[in-house]
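Lab meeting, action items carried over

1. Structure of the two-component assembly. Owner: GW. Status: complete.
Input record:
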Amino acid sequence: MTGDAIWYEAAQVVGITNALNVAADGLGALGPVDEAAAPPEARALLAEIRAFYDGGVGPPGFRLIAHDPAYAAEVWAAARHAYGDNGLARRFKEALAFAVSVTTRSASGASFHLSEMRRLGVGERGVMEIVGVTQMFSSYTKIADTLQLEPDMGGIAPVDPTPAPGGPAE
Amino acid sequence: MPTVRLRSAAEYPAAAQKLFALSRAWFNHDFAEPPAMSRVMAWDPGFGGPHGRAMKRAMGPGEFTRGEKEMVAAVVSGVNACEY
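Predicted assembly:
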């Protein structure tokens, strides 16, 4: 897991997962878009999301933000990019999204990303591995915060000397 | 600044020195002093022992690699806004 690129990918997954969970858990009062009565661009967007999720409805937040199809389409473009196979595999990205959802107490996000992990082939052992890491580091972090420990392990990670994508090499 | 005085490794009993050696092996890094969290966990073996074993079981090889699990741990720490 060396090189900065995969950490940028992980950060994208964390950010967009939290954004979608915020919508799913906080915007229920808006009600989901009625797909049958929605404008064509909203229907096309929801169809594209279903295709990415192999027929599933996708992250529940999209049906709430699809009231503004142009906005939702941009969020979807970012989400599709973040969750797709790249330096990190889609299967692992769903595990990251599950860990984020559990940590932020998003029941809808945890449920959705758990089902995606399973759909992409993660077994019960793998699920419990992610549960274990999430739970143990939810413990370590609070112990560290309570005792106000200062970071002392940053130096063990190697520095990636490569430039930004497309940038000039040194 | 920590709310407690973090003891140096030399201030711990012999049993804790074994834990510090395991910590060096776990991180594959020769620390001048064991990481602060290792020293915190060595303070009370009744808690730190089972907590550390649970962590090692969770982080051990399985369906996900150790590297992937380290990334999950970093993500959870970041979401919890933990600087350590």
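2. GW to write a short summary for the group page. Key points so far: The first helix of chain B runs from residue 14 to 27. The CA atoms of residues 42 and 59 of chain B lie 19 Å apart.
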